[in-house]
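It is worth pausing here to work through a concrete case rather than discussing structure prediction in the abstract. The textbook approach is simple: state the sequence, then state the predicted structure, then interpret. We follow exactly that order.
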Amino acid sequence: MKFIDEFRDKNLVQEIVRRIRSLADTPAAIMEVCGTHTMAAARFGLKSLLPEQVQLISGPGCPVCVTAQMDIDAFLALGDEANVVLASFGDMLRVPGSQTSLERRRAQGTAVRIVYAPLDAVELARQEPGKHVIFFGVGFETTMPAIAMAIRLAASLRLDNFSVLCVHKTMPAALRALLASGEVRVSGLLCPGHVTTIIGAAAYDFIPQEFGIPCAVTGFEPLDMLLGIEAILRQLHEGRPRVDNVYTRAVQVQPNPRAQALLAEVFDPCDAEWRGLGIIPGSGVKIREQYDHFDARTRFPEVWQRLAPAPPSPCRCGEVLRGVLRPKECPLFHQACTPSQPIGPCMVSSEGACAAAYRYDG
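Step two, the predicted structure:
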């Protein structure tokens, strides 16, 4: 109940919780698609407010976690090239590859720079013309426009020493694959607000239409999430699945036209490999031929030629991402796998389900 204790309008929260309890007339498993939702639910103790028959399960919405092992290994291998600087967001620093991590490579002398925005990596390349800066393009639709802008800026500056290893993923394709597999029974989906500011709430219409599953687009404040849970339970109660947008202060029904135009200019759709989900057709993007001079795969093809397949790992992060395994059900959790010695990305990512469970659920 710590969220209620800290919230200034306790009556409002209690009223929403009361409505949730009144609507929870059947068991419901609601998937938090986004890792930020998972972390917020754990941090604020939202599960303690829900009736017993309503359960929250994690989904494939942590961009760090779903990045394929081979893609992480490839980025680390790029650090072996002469005069290369590896640039990345900080959440990739401690994510383990098959043999090492960015943090360990940096300790061993590899040039690794943590940046706060893709444009910082472009500026780094401009300031160090004798080095080749490779940015690790990880993330969903939320971060893709900023990286597209970085590529376009590098092109306008005619930088010859900047490239991107693009491993971006698109969320709707993964949700379709997950639901079509039938592996996990989901009663409703809490859809991510930040991704939906780019793609629009209508991008999820196929979920109620094809799978009969309710959706609610929500923000990341506890109150937003409670309203999303209420919306899903109301749809279940009424027997009318749809996409409810309870995050109208930021999300529109239709996609952001400027962002979509930018993405179409720089990227083309492609198949992509997801940790735990395998290769999903059309679920990724690649840098278009017009900008392929800034594609690390084009600039350093020899790295992929010598890259060995990722060996099997005991990590069960993939099952956690599919919602079929809870973090505490993994035999490595809190034993061999901890935040200080992570075996998989779900334990070290700031949006990882295992990290949330370790930190807040004991």
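Step three, interpretation. The longest strand covers residues 278-287. DSSP finds 18 helices and eleven strands in the chain.
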